[in-house]
Amino acid sequence: MADLLTGDFYTFEDLLADDERAILHRVRAFLQENVVPVANHYWARAEFPLDLVKGYAELGIAGLAYPECPGPKPSGLLSGFLALEMAHADPSMATFFGVHTGLAMGSIATCGSEEQRERWLPEMSRMEKIGAFALTEPTGGSDVSGGMRTTARREGDTWVLDGAKRWIGNGTFADLIVVWARDTEDGHVKGFVVEQGTPGFTATKIENKMALRTVQNADITLRDCRVPETNRLQRAGSFRDTAKILRGTRSGVAWQACGIMIAAYEIALRYAKEREQFGRPIAKFQLVQDLLVRMLGNATACLGMVVRLAQLQDAGIYRDENSALAKAYCTTQMRQVVGWARELLAGNGIILDYDIGRFVADAEAIYSYEGTREINTLIVGRAITGHGAFV
């Protein structure tokens, strides 16, 4: 059985049921044996390890939360710990998995008809088909709900999509891309499943990224892209339905932030015990211990927050502002932790061989996606004051 993570100082993992802890440990073993050893290799080359997808599929955890997919239904706590574990190994691969299972599958599960869920989710749960989620646009990020320019025009039993999307994770190779577009007739945002290879759909890899380099983000162009009515998500009638998906995945990002903090802390702790200066390990110096304790404190506080968030999810009483606060706070603390870890490693902290540089860079992307700190702050601010202050 896998050991507890060193950074889980209050052993929150013990809150899992025995069968769920066994699943977590099986995933941890796979990640440590197959993903961690090659993470730097693929990150440096900005390439995606397609050969690892089969291994992820064999874990049997993609889509566990959805009724159409086989297997026992996980608690919110297990789902959270799985997101943490993946980010702890490699934030890029955690993002790949989160886009597929959370954003793409989540869109179909939440907004698709029964026929659509049965049509796509089982294949996606086996990872025979990979999903992507196309919401952000070249000129629209935080304001995309009101400023979406991608349009959908109905012609009989066909919808014609025109526009552009940006930063679409998995976009270069995904089989099914959930595209959000504004209906030209009623002005509401609707969701469409566009299959890779559809005429009028083009995906171009975004180059020269400094973060999540393994993730294949794409610029997507839609020009007279025609999809059948059967590919329109039947229960997506406005942006409020899109927001339902983001509420759930936003909490997953907070868990990812905890995984990154724990990884950074463990890298720094290991280095402090091994690195010698002035004739002794630097772990014996007071200032080094101070940095380590700050890192551990941040990680532990944030882990306590997301554990409670998972409990609220399981009870069916969590709200948008709960996820928003966790995402905003945990990713802010994450930036501090990876910065302190890099500081502790000094010059070696910027060399990929020591791992922490990758986490420092990747943390910047985690900090920004699924709603910036400012947007999530405004969601919480509206909830606690009763006044919206967006624009």
From TrEMBL:
Residues 243-384 form the Acyl-CoA dehydrogenase/oxidase C-terminal domain. Residues 18-128 form the Acyl-CoA dehydrogenase/oxidase N-terminal domain. Pfam families: Acyl-CoA_dh_1, Acyl-CoA_dh_M, Acyl-CoA_dh_N. GO terms for molecular function: acyl-CoA dehydrogenase activity; flavin adenine dinucleotide binding. Keywords: FAD, Flavoprotein, Oxidoreductase. InterPro entries: ACX4-like (IPR045008), Acyl-CoA_DH_CS (IPR006089), Acyl-CoA_Oxase/DH_mid-dom (IPR006091), Acyl-CoA_Oxase/DH_mid-dom_sf (IPR046373), AcylCo_DH-like_C (IPR036250), AcylCo_DH/oxidase_C (IPR009075), AcylCoA_DH/ox_N (IPR013786), AcylCoA_DH/ox_N_sf (IPR037069). It comes from the Bacteria. One of its GO terms (biological process) is fatty acid beta-oxidation. Residues 132-225 form the Acyl-CoA oxidase/dehydrogenase middle domain. Transmembrane segments: none annotated. Coiled coil: none annotated. Its cofactor is FAD. PANTHER family: ACYL-COA DEHYDROGENASE (PTHR43188:SF1), ACYL-COENZYME A OXIDASE (PTHR43188). Belongs to the acyl-CoA dehydrogenase family. This is Glutaryl-CoA dehydrogenase. It comes from Nonomuraea solani. The lineage of its organism: Bacteria, Bacillati, Actinomycetota, Actinomycetes, Streptosporangiales.
